[in-house]
Write a structure and sequence with these properties.
The complex is a heterotrimer of chains A (418), B (573) and C (125).
Chain A (H helix, E strand, L loop, with lengths): L4 E8 L3 H12 L4 E4 L15 E3 L1 H4 L3 E2 H14 L3 E3 L3 E7 L3 E7 L3 E12 L3 E3 L8 E2 L5 E3 H11 L1 E2 L3 E5 L3 H12 L3 E7 L8 H8 L6 E3 L1 E7 L6 E6 L12 E4 L2 E4 L3 E3 L31 E3 L10 H19 L8 E6 L3 E5 L2 E3 L6 E7 L3 E10 L2 E11 L5 E5 L10 E6 L1
Parallel strand pairs in A: 1-2, 1-8, 2-5, 8-21, 10-16, 11-19, 13-14, 13-19, 14-15, 22-29
Antiparallel strand pairs in A: 3-4, 6-7, 7-8, 9-20, 16-17, 17-18, 22-24, 23-25, 25-28, 26-27, 26-29
Helix pairs in contact in A: 1-3, 1-7, 4-5, 5-6
Chain B lengths: L2 H11 L6 E5 L2 E5 L1 E2 L2 H11 L7 E3 L2 E2 L21 E7 L3 H10 L6 E4 L16 E2 L10 H20 L8 E4 L9 H11 L5 E3 L1 H7 L10 E4 L3 E2 L2 H14 L3 E3 L4 E7 L2 E7 L2 E10 L5 H7 L8 E10 L10 E3 L13 E4 L5 E4 L3 E3 L9 H11 L11 E11 L6 E4 L6 E5 L5 H21 L25 H10 L6 E3 L4 E2 H8 L8 H8 L12 H12 L18 E2 L10
Helix pairs in contact in B: 3-7, 3-10, 4-10, 12-13, 12-14
Chain C lengths: L1 E4 L8 E7 L2 E5 L5 H11 L2 E2 L2 E6 L6 E6 L3 E2 L3 H8 L3 E2 L8 E3 L9 E3 L14
Parallel strand pairs in C: 5-8
Antiparallel strand pairs in C: 1-2, 2-3, 4-7, 5-6, 6-10, 9-10
Classes of the chains: A alpha/beta (418), B alpha/beta (573), C alpha+beta (125).
Chain lengths: 418, 573, 125
């Protein structure tokens, strides 16, 4: 094996989070490289050919590849080293981090880094994880896989599709399949409300007369070689199938849009603490995990709705990683930021009192609430109060906390109420 | 009491007095009608062990259609008139192991398999256990072959290049008073021939396996228990057989025999009629049907389905041994299943046991999952439902006598049966294969000389398995062939080179499930979400198929429907 | 009175739209764009169309494209048919024009991805 290259910061992943992190780290004076397992950078945006990206960041409605191109071009112009088609085999802590990688050109090689930004994105929840029963015929796909087949490779997975899950990916694919000549029988959603944005219900389902069925789920798939149909069941408020309400829907494809899971398994040997609710590392407002020098951003940290916030988190992590690598190692003074009352999760899970810049806080409500108030409390002291006309779980909220407010070392509580 | 009267008595006790009982060729024949499959099965068991060779259960179940095997759609004459010394029917672990054993002699050998790949049925749908031999009773073929086979596994693994993990098993005792039986069971097992069995106290179990259920009251430790990837074992046997000159014909179904009195003159398949010196019946759940083609049906196969769940690799560090907590009085004929480590580093839960009328019914149900979650998952206290990454089912080939049938036919000169192979079938396979091959050779030697194969190589040719190489070995491989440098299956870290090797191997993989069985692409936590599009492309490129022709498994399981844009492009930009 | 969901941005405000004396009155929008959206939606619902076109490059077989502006919703099926006959044989960049004017519209079809070749370093073009 060749001798080890040494970097200040290595970014794992060249999707929007990783690209933003690399640019920020570079801008802060660090020597940074990116490692990416696909042959081209851009991450999942390469296949997200629909528009709506970049409203916050660019005040434009761009398609995914356009949004990605902005940062890919900037990385190229800045001369940042990018290893593509390169797979991370192993991660170790050793006076910093040692990455063992492989690709066609260099076979197996190692890189050293003082700081690491894990921008590894998500994978999709599978049909097995939502316990759909039957045989294992061809024609059961997750929505992202279908998106890749249609948009990158140019193939329809089937001709008559049932979509389970009304999250944005499922809705977008309902429209895409229809435009390319497939029939979408319906979108089925286990909850009583759709999971995706209202605008997508309009422009993906209503525009194409695709029915949306709420409080229903797929319990079984039929067919042994290829999908022949699915069993749909109504569910109760506990989301369990109600016996006797089964209906058979003939189709040849079942597409699942049932959630994303942050991919952090490669970090486990480092001893990283993961948050059970987000699936990502527990971090402070600089996106620093419990492992010194390991930063997390993008969908690997928690599943985002807007890519603009993914880029923002990448910037935060990249900048912080650069400072860490270049010697700005102040001992953090962390207080927990705890999610209570109607809050599904909050990121970050800690606030570092040592850091003086404004702290961006993301949170999601547990359920749809109208006319609610969000409180950030430190003991008795109200750090922030915000009113919302409506809070919906699929719409992540973002607030910024002034560091001057962070004086005491009590735990801080965020909650939604009344 | 034996004989027809005994069977009648047993049936009467079950309330099935109307069943007709007769005897034919020393087997008992049951005819008539019952109201449910459970009654059919109960009648079969009632007739077993009453002094007959076997039970031919021809009882009809009211309202239930007869069960027929899946047959491949192809029909051609590609094998018409082909002449072999041995034809093996069935590409499960036994069939493939027999093929490999037969290549020790200089013979023309054909293995015919009706599915699109070997190891498609029970051989890839079991928990991979190399049992220690604790369960089978004395005097059974199961015990004999299990003990022999278990011992032979180490050499088989070394020769054929598959991984064997002899982790040992803890048979947990459920109730405190079971401890009273521990010494007796230990003595009885030792007498049977089970090696190295130890009695372990509750505290000792807790020490050895910290996350074991608190319900345990001690255990028997069986060090000879091992685990393997059963589909890889089957593949290894098949590949070594082909390397040594055997031929494997997939999508080739035996439809009947052309009999010349008490000899099989021709093997009728969907690809023509083959001649064969000897025929070996290793046809799994359809072995009784194959026997019937030769008018030699003296047993009946009924299906018992078992469901298995695989848990994420993140759980593997949490368990060291195979764990089971069998019930002393079992309602089913199966051992009850457990939680096992796998050779790849997952944990595996199952199987359960449910009698099923359709022998190729591999559908999973919520009830099966509930059994696994409620009864087995708790054996390891750190496991939870969210750890399950996939589940599947297989159907065991059970006879009513609950024992293997390993013997030359009593009535047909050139037929050998290797039938009724269910647990401990996988563990027994090396020994069964040895004996069945010898039986076949003995039959051939009555008519001609059979010489050893001078070019027989027991070592399977090494195909790179990057997961078993060091980083520097991996690097060397990539330098020689950069295709090993690109990772296609991210969860299991499988390279393009390994996938191409599988497609072009001795038993070529022409669909995605076949690739999965050889190199595990698609078996990880994302269950093919990331790699499926690339696999389709690679198969198309390597085989010349169009992407929309690439299948997941059997013909008709196409993964894609069509290209997205109409053909015939005009405007050029 | 009609209820519409504004699709101008992800917030999806619920609009109440009434026609009165030839004017379209809109309420429920949290920003001015809702007014324009409601007016257009009632008269001639239009959308941005995003899709792909085939290319002649094996290493980049499909080019993602979008309309550079909105097209009538009911024209989309015909436009898709037309767009599906196109083949791109130059390596385009985001913003490059694929079709200068889609039939029956005043809108161009533009490339949204950079068709980088795979034998050049990915961080170069």
């Amino acid at each position: 094996m060749s001798s080890m290259e040494s970097w200040d910061v290595i970014v794992i992943g060249a999707g929007p989070a990783g690209l933003a992190a690399a640019l920020a780290a570079h801008g802060a004076g660090a020597r940074v490289c990116i490692v990416e397992r696909e042959v081209r950078p851009g991450g999942i945006l390469k296949q997200c050919i629909h528009d709506g990206f970049g409203l916050v960041r660019f005040e434009q409605k761009l398609s995914g590849p356009e949004y990605a191109w902005h940062d890919i071009r900037a990385v190229r112009d800045a001369g940042i080293q990018l290893y593509t088609d390169t797979f991370l085999l192993q991660l170790e802590r050793e006076e910093g981090f040692v990455l063992t990688l492989q690709n066609k050109e260099r076979a197996v090689f190692q890189l050293k880094a003082r700081a690491l930004v894990a921008a590894t994105g998500c994978r999709e929840r599978t049909s097995r994880q939502v316990f759909i029963y039957g045989q294992r015929p061809a024609g059961v796909y997750t929505a992202g896989t279908v998106q890749r087949l249609i948009n990158i490779q140019g193939y329809l997975p089937g001709r008559r599709c049932v979509i389970l899950g009304s999250g944005d990916i499922g809705l977008i694919m309902a429209r895409r399949l229809t435009l390319e000549g497939a029939e979408v029988v319906g979108v089925y959603e286990i909850k009583a409300e759709p999971s995706g944005l209202s605008r997508n219900i309009v422009q993906c389902l209503e525009d194409y007369n695709i029915p949306l069925h709420l409080a229903q789920t797929v319990t079984a798939v039929h067919g042994s070689e290829r999908v022949e149909g699915v069993s749909i069941c109504r569910v109760g408020p506990d989301l369990r199938p109600i016996p006797g309400t089964e209906e058979y829907i003939p189709c040849d494809t079942l597409i699942l849009s049932v959630g994303l899971i942050p991919e952090n398994d490669i970090l486990r040997p480092l001893g990283v603490e993961l948050d059970r609710r987000t699936g990502g590392p527990r971090v402070d407002q600089r996106l620093h995990s419990n492992v010194p020098g390991l930063f997390s951003c993008g969908n690997a940290l928690h599943v985002n709705d807007l890519v603009d916030y993914v880029s923002e988190s990448g910037e935060t992590a990249g900048k912080a990683a650069a400072e860490f690598a270049l010697g700005g190692r102040k001992t953090p003074q962390r207080v927990p930021l705890l999610a209570r009352g109607n809050i599904q999760y909050v990121v970050p899970q800690y606030l570092d009192l040592e850091h003086n810049a404004p702290a961006v806080i993301y949170f999601r409500g547990e359920c749809t609430l109208s006319r609610v108030e969000m409180h950030l409390l430190s003991g008795e002291k109200v750090l922030m109060r915000r009113r919302y006309a409506v809070i919906r779980p699929p719409e992540m909220e973002r607030v910024v906390l002034n560091p001057a407010e962070l004086t005491e070392s009590n735990e801080i509580i965020i909650s939604l109420g009344g | 009491m034996t004989g027809v009267r005994a069977v009648h008595k047993a049936l009467n006790k079950l309330g099935l007095a109307g069943i007709e009982v007769s005897s034919r060729h020393q087997a008992v024949v049951l005819e008539g009608e019952v109201e449910s499959w459970d009654q059919y099965v109960a009648a079969g068991y009632a007739a077993a062990g009453k002094g007959f060779r076997g039970v031919v259960n021809d009882i009809q179940v009211n309202g239930l259609q007869g069960d027929t095997p899946y047959l491949p759609p192809d029909r051609d004459n590609s094998l018409e008139g082909e002449d072999f010394d041995a034809v093996i029917i069935g590409g499960g672990v036994v069939g493939c192991a027999v093929a490999r054993e037969l290549t020790r002699w200089n013979l023309r050998i054909a293995l015919v398999e009706k599915e699109d790949d070997v190891a498609k049925q029970a051989s890839s749908r079991n928990n991979g256990m190399i049992h220690p031999g604790l369960a089978p009773s004395r005097g059974t073929k199961k015990l004999d072959y299990n003990l022999r086979g278990n011992e032979m596994y180490s050499q088989a693994a070394a020769e054929l290049g598959f991984e064997l993990k002899r982790c040992g098993s803890l048979v947990l005792l459920e109730k405190p008073w079971y401890r009273l039986f521990q010494p007796a069971i230990k003595a009885w097992a030792t007498k049977k021939g089970v090696p190295g069995i130890e009695s372990i106290s509750r505290q000792s179990v807790q020490q050895r396996e910290p996350r074991v259920t608190s319900r345990q009251q001690g255990a028997l430790f069986l060090p000879s228990t091992g685990v393997v990837a059963p589909y890889k074992v089957t593949m290894a046997y098949a590949e070594n057989a082909v390397e040594n000159g055997a031929q494997v014909f997939l999508n080739t179904a035996v439809l009947g025999f052309d009999m010349d009195r008490d000899r099989i003159r021709g093997v009728i398949t969907n690809r023509g009629v083959l001649q064969s010196g000897v025929v070996i019946n290793a046809a799994g759940v359809w072995a009784d049907r194959v026997a019937a083609y030769a008018h030699d049906r003296f047993f009946t196969i009924h299906g018992r389905k078992g469901t298995i769940a695989i848990l994420d690799k993140n759980t593997s560090s949490l368990q060291k041994y195979v764990l089971g907590m069998p019930q002393l009085v079992s309602k089913t004929h199966s051992k009850g299943g457990g939680v096992n480590p796998t050779v790849e580093g997952n944990l595996l839960m199952g199987p359960n046991a449910v009698e099923v009328p359709h022998r190729e019914d591999w559908g999973t149900t919520p009830q099966d999952m509930e059994y696994l979650v409620q009864r087995l998952m708790g054996l390891n206290t750190s496991l939870k439902r969210g750890d399950i990454i996939t589940y599947f089912a297989g159907v065991r080939a059970c006879t009513f006598e609950e024992d293997f049938i390993i013997q030359p036919s009593d009535s047909v000169q050139n037929l050998v049966h290797a039938a009724g192979i269910q647990s401990p079938g996988l563990a027994s396979a090396p020994a069964i294969a040895q004996d069945v091959a010898q039986m076949a050779v003995n039959i051939l030697q009555r008519r001609r000389e059979v010489k050893p194969n001078p070019t027989f190589r027991p070592q399977r040719r090494v195909v790179p398995d990057l997961s078993r190489l060091s980083f520097s070995e991996r690097a060397e491989l990539i330098r020689k062939n950069p295709a090993y440098g690109r990772i296609v299956c991210r969860c299991e870290v499988i390279s393009e080179g390994e996938i191409v090797d599988a497609i072009n191997g001795p038993v070529p993989a022409t669909n995605l499930d076949a690739i999965k069985r050889r190199v595990r692409a698609g078996m990880g936590r994302c269950q093919g979400g990331f790699c499926t599009p690339s696999l389709v492309e690679i198969v198309a490129r390597e085989t010349g198929l169009k992407p929309q022709e690439v299948c997941k498994g059997r013909p008709g399981s196409n993964l894609l429907a069509a290209e997205t844009k109409a053909p015939g492009r005009e405007a050029n930009v | 009175m009609k209820t519409l969901v504004c699709i101008e941005c992800p917030r999806g405000c619920k609009l109440e739209v009434t026609r009165r004396e030839g004017k379209i009155l809109v309420s429920g929008n949290r920003c001015p764009r809702g007014q324009g959206y409601a007016e257009r939606e009632l008269v001639n619902p239009s959308r941005t169309l995003t899709t792909t076109v085939k290319t002649s490059f094996a290493d980049f077989p499909l080019l993602p494209v979008r309309t550079d502006g909105e097209v009538p919703l009911d024209s989309i099926p015909a436009l898709m048919e037309r767009i599906n006959t196109v083949q791109v044989s130059r390596r385009l960049l985001p913003g490059d024009v694929v079709m200068p004017q889609l039939p029956g519209t005043h809108v161009a079809l533009i490339a949204t991805a950079a068709m980088t070749a795979l034998d050049t370093p990915a961080s170069g073009e």
